[in-house]
Each structure stands twice: as structure tokens, then as C-alpha cells.
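> example.struct
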């Protein structure tokens, strides 16, 4: 086994971690020791051929640990999950245990969403959806503003992060006065949205059966006026449009799509005619494209 120790950053200072030492443990029976006064560390089996096993004693026991990114110094609190107890494999980890602290900033939010999608493949479970909702509610930073752009003619899709494997996409949408989306679906995806600024209206409709035309059937109309409100829709619930009806105040919303997608179907409310369109982002990672 290899152990690498680092200095613990002061006051959550960002930047590459400072390495203190690196030790190889290759003699069976060797006992090591560390506490927070000595630093923080990582332990690794670097062999690509031989498995390893170690015995660990923690006094006193603890329920959560702080972990760091070696290159950026970013940190977050997590709850360790036991793989087995008393020789018996544990059930799948409780997703809510992965959320020990609120999402402190938008990058931290992305990390936590990524870990949830890795820990649980059933996006339709109530446990997963509650965990995602909890995360979005917990995010209260205003660092989303650096990703936000407005346009006088169209609402803007400002991509904060798009997972390379298509697991999810996080965007900040900018709504100038009196702007709205067409009526659209979310093909095979879940759509979570959070009000960041202003006031937004959502109008939902029944999705017409394939080949059926005519005026769309309205299901509901809601107004989001309380900052921080989180909404949700998927194709099993219907199709919708979202609108900033104010002629004076701009609005902004945070959108999470699980998984991400590249095309949407849009409808004409009166005729029921529909057509597929590619989604296009106005900006990527804070830069207009």
C-alpha cells in the first residue's frame, strides 16, 4: 500500500494541496498512524496484479469525513458507506447519506449530482428524486450569475456543465421580459427547474397521441414567484411551456436534465402540429458560443 500525506488547507483555501510525504507499506504486519494534527492523506493500492487488505481502527468512531480535490483544493463533507457489516454485504447505500452538507456552490452542486447518478441508476425512484430535489433546494449561492446572459430576442440556454457520458446537464436560463419557450417535451428525461430571479409561469398540456391533431388540452397553469422554488416535469406528466410574463423584470432559472438530450419536440397549441428541433446553447461555461 502507498500512503501520501498533505497539509490540510487553512480556512478552505483553494489551490493544489501541499504534499508532506509518501510512504510505501510493503511489510505484512506494519502498523501506521495518522490524525488531523499530522495532516490529511490518501491510501492507495498501486498494484495492477495483486489485491491488498488493511485493518483500520478509528477512535472514536465518526460518521462523516471531509474530502479534498488534490488539484483544486475544493472540499466537501461526505458520509462513508460500509460495504459489509459483520460479514454480510450491505444493501445499496442510502442516497440521502451522500448529502451531508448543502451544495455550497454550483461546482459543488455538480459534484454531488454526479455522485448521486453514479450511486443510483434508477432515476425514477422516489429516493433518487427526493435526493436531487434536496440538493437543488440546498444550493443558495449566487455564483450562477457568472454563467447568465440575456438576449433581447430570445431566452438563453446557458450551459454550466454537460456530463461527457450524457448522464445530466445543468443550465442557467435567462429570461428577458415577455419571453417564453414553445410548448415542448423532455424526451426520455427528467426536468428539474429552480427559480433564481424574477417570476415565471408554467403551463402544461396533455401530449397528443401520435398522428392526432387539434387544439392541445391544457392540464394546469402555475406561477413561480418565490425565489428558490423547485419544480419538476417529465413526459409522463405532460408537455409544457415556461414564460416570463413581466414587461419590466427579467428572470433566471436553474435547469437540470437527467439524462441530457439533444433534440426536443415542439407543438403548436392551436393546431397540434409538431416538429423536432435540436437544442442549442447560447453560452458554455460562461462564454457565448
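> example.seq
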Amino acid at each position: 500500500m502507498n500512503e501520501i500525506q498533505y497539509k490540510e488547507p487553512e480556512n478552505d483555501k483553494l489551490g493544489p494541496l501541499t504534499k508532506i510525504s509518501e510512504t510505501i507499506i510493503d511489510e505484512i504486519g506494519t502498523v501506521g498512524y495518522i490524525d488531523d494534527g499530522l495532516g490529511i492523506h490518501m491510501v492507495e493500492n498501486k498494484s495492477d496484479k495483486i489485491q491488498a487488505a488493511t485493518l483500520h481502527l478509528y477512535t472514536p468512531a465518526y460518521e462523516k469525513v471531509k474530502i479534498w480535490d488534490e488539484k483544486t483544493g475544493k472540499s466537501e463533507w461526505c458520509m462513508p458507506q460500509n460495504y459489509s457489516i459483520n460479514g454480510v454485504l450491505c444493501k445499496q447505500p442510502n442516497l440521502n447519506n451522500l448529502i451531508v452538507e448543502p451544495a455550497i456552490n454550483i461546482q459543488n452542486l455538480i459534484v454531488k449530482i454526479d455522485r448521486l447518478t453514479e450511486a443510483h441508476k434508477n432515476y425514477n425512484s422516489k429516493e433518487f428524486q427526493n435526493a436531487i430535489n434536496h440538493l437543488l433546494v440546498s444550493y443558495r449561492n449566487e455564483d450562477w450569475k457568472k454563467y447568465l446572459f440575456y438576449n433581447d430576442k430570445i431566452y438563453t440556454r446557458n450551459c454550466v456543465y454537460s456530463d461527457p457520458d450524457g448522464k445530466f446537464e445543468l443550465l442557467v436560463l435567462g429570461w428577458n421580459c415577455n419571453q417564453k419557450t414553445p410548448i415542448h417535451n423532455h424526451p426520455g428525461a427528467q426536468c428539474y427547474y429552480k427559480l433564481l430571479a424574477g417570476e415565471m409561469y408554467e403551463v402544461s398540456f396533455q401530449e397528443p397521441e401520435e398522428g392526432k391533431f387539434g387544439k392541445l388540452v391544457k392540464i394546469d397553469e402555475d406561477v413561480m414567484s418565490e425565489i428558490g422554488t423547485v419544480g419538476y416535469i417529465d413526459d409522463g406528466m405532460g408537455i409544457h411551456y415556461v414564460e416570463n410574463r413581466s414587461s419590466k423584470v427579467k428572470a433566471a432559472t436553474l435547469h437540470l436534465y437527467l439524462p441530457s438530450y439533444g433534440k426536443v419536440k415542439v407543438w403548436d397549441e392551436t393546431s397540434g402540429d409538431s416538429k423536432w428541433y435540436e437544442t442549442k446553447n447560447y453560452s458554455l461555461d460562461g462564454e457565448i458560443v
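> remarks
The longest helix spans residues 106-119.
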